[in-house]
Design a protein that fits this description.
Layout: E1 25-32, H1 51-55, H2 63-79, E2 84-88, H3 97-102, H4 105-114, E3 118-120, H5 129-139, E4 144-145, E5 149-150, E6 164-169, E7 172-180, H6 184-187, E8 195-196, H7 199-212, E9 218-223, H8 226-235, E10 241-243, E11 264-267, E12 273-277, E13 285-293, E14 299-304, E15 307-308, H9 317-333, E16 337-341, H10 349-352, H11 358-371, E17 378-382, E18 393-396, H12 397-403, E19 410-416, H13 417-428, E20 439-442, E21 444-448, E22 458-465, E23 468-471, E24 477-483, H14 484-487, H15 494-499, E25 501-504, H16 510-520, E26 532-534
Parallel strand pairs: 1-2, 2-3, 3-4, 7-9, 9-10, 10-12, 17-24, 21-26
Antiparallel strand pairs: 1-13, 5-8, 6-7, 11-12, 13-14, 13-15, 16-18, 17-20, 19-24, 19-25, 21-22, 22-23
Helix pairs in contact: 11-16, 12-16
């Protein structure tokens, strides 16, 4: 593992198991996670693919390809008399105009058409509150589960979400139990009546209850991220496999970009290997793992690999027609007026990549405004992520999408002051080349010079504290917001990826944040201030 195995590196990572070679029962698990409303196919940047790229065979995924692949594998397994389940590990909500338009209705329609056996609640399923999730659950033709959340005091969800279910597959009882990231109260909008508890404690309780009911094959379908899944596997006995989501991790035995093998193996408190699988995100892959138990209910093997949904997978015709039908009003959404601005907002490449620009002010201010109640005081946006200007007058959603076409999400994390300076130095390191990394900021004021070599260009930096500008403290820790591209090291911001603490990369889409900000500020007036000064 390149990315996640620090601290747990001593745990087993091989796909081998000790025990009898006699196979008593095998189950294929077909799984996806974090589709994030990528109803349409995506390009290599995980954004909506256009018709030209589709014709050139450059697109991936989309629900029509997911439908094709799951139908194909389901048919092959059925014909061979094999057992299987189809699982979604959460976060169908949020990420494209399909969600903005239909909320969960489009997602659940396609999920019903694919035929899932179970879905875990993801944190983004709460993005529009319990009521929207409730409507989704009501329409679902499959159980939606999550155990470490108590919804008994939330009228919209009371009695609708179980912690676990038992399914009989091929004559065997399979326990499916789910947990959700405990910080969902900070990353989404579950409201104050949904109570979150320890996922570790809940899993221990659920395993005990399932075991008492004679279930000795238990699958945890989690939405907590690979590091947390590994931690849970090491602390909770009785889980046979974890099918996870939330961290958007590609595990693979064949892709050199993978964060680790498929499955990752972690030893539980009894010294038994627990396989963990995850299949990236955005509909690009369908995970496919086969687990085999012996007569005593002990896992003796787990093997497989995610299947990439590239041009070799023909989209299901019926699904594709429905996607196009539902997409028609989205084209109308692009012309929807979301607000107005008093003057042109300059987002030109020539300005935003070398100095403070009006679009940089708007976008970074909007980012900080959205997350300021989460302990975030600084926002940093790369100038290259700003792709257009906005004319004076009425502003349409299409114009905002032209400025911010990448479907980036807000990422939040904590960073030492010294690392904030390192980030600014990176952003200023290629000004001569008009590179896209130039740092547009909010909640932060800095002075710089290009007379110094790259890496030595920041002269001073200040942060707003108690209504006053004070010098940035290299030893202090600050809450920072950026976009998920930068947070993962894009545009040279490696310090965000390596040193960012308590990171959460899957906040609301940046274009929606900016549209909401414009809507909340009628006749928004663009302006430049002294937050960035060149000497």
């Amino acid at each position: 593992m390149k990315k996640y195995l620090t601290g747990v590196a001593a745990m087993a990572l091989t796909a081998g198991f000790a025990g009898s070679a006699h196979a008593d029962y095998s189950l294929n698990i077909l799984h996806i996670n974090d589709l994030h409303s990528r109803i349409e196919s995506i390009n290599k940047y995980d954004s909506t693919c256009d018709d030209e790229s589709e014709a050139e065979g450059k697109c991936f995924g989309g629900v029509a390809r997911v439908k094709t692949m799951i139908n194909q594998r389901r048919g092959e397994l059925s014909d061979a008399g094999k057992n299987f389940l189809v699982i979604d590990a959460g976060d169908q909500f949020q990420g494209s105009l399909f969600y903005s338009t239909y909320k969960g209705d489009a997602a659940v329609e396609f999920m019903n058409g694919i035929g899932f056996d179970v879905m875990a609640v993801g944190n983004h399923e709460f993005d529009d509150g319990p009521e929207t999730l409730s409507a989704f659950v009501d329409k679902a033709e499959f159980p939606i589960i999550s155990g470490n959340i108590d919804v008994s005091s939330e009228p919209a969800l009371k009695g609708k979400i179980k912690g676990y279910i038992i399914k009989e597959v091929g004559g065997e009882k399979i326990g499916l139990v789910s947990t959700l990231a405990e910080d969902t109260v900070e990353t989404s909008s579950p409201g104050d009546k949904v109570i979150f508890s320890s996922s570790e404690d809940y899993l221990k309780q659920a395993v005990m209850e399932l075991t008492e009911q004679g279930v000795n094959k238990i699958i945890a379908v989690t939405h907590e991220g690979l590091p947390k899944d590994m931690d849970l596997a090491s602390k909770v006995s009785g889980i046979d496999i974890i099918v996870g989501g939330h961290s958007h991790t590609l595990l693979s035995n064949t892709d050199d970009k993978a964060a680790g093998p498929y499955p990752v193996m972690v030893k539980n408190p009894d010294g038994k290997d627990v396989p963990i699988v995850q299949a990236y995100a955005y509909s690009k892959y369908v995970g496919d793992v086969v687990v085999t138990w012996d007569d005593d209910g002990e896992v003796i093997s787990a093997k497989g690999d995610p299947i990439i949904l590239d041009k070799s997978v023909t989209p299901d015709e019926g699904f594709l027609a429905r996607v196009n039908e539902l997409g028609a009003p989205i084209e109308e959404l692009k012309v929807k007026v979301i607000g107005s601005v008093a003057d042109e907002i300059d987002g030109s490449r020539d300005n935003c990549r070398v100095k403070l620009c009006e679009m940089g002010v708007l976008v970074s201010d909007a980012m900080l405004d959205r997350v300021k109640d989460q302990g975030i005081s600084i926002a940093i946006q790369n100038g290259g992520g700003l792709r257009a200007s906005i004319d004076a007058g009425e502003v349409t959603m299409g114009e905002v999408l032209t400025v911010l076409p990448f479907q980036n999400t807000i990422a939040t994390f904590q960073l030492k002051g010294a690392d904030v300076i390192a980030a600014l130095e990176n952003g200023l390191s290629q000004v001569e080349e008009v590179a896209g990394r130039f740092p547009q900021v909010a909640g932060l004021k800095y002075t710089w010079t290009k007379s110094k070599p790259a890496g030595e260009r920041v002269i001073s930096a200040e942060v707003m504290q108690d209504g006053k500008w004070v010098p940035l403290d290299p030893e202090a820790t600050y809450g920072v917001a950026s976009n998920n591209y930068m947070r993962s090291g894009g545009d040279g911001y490696k310090v965000f990826a390596t040193n960012g603490m308590n990171a959460y990369d899957y906040g609301p889409n940046l274009e929606n944040v900016v549209a909401d900000y414009i809507s909340a500020h009628p006749d928004y007036t663009p302006e430049l201030d002294d937050r960035i000064t060149e000497e």
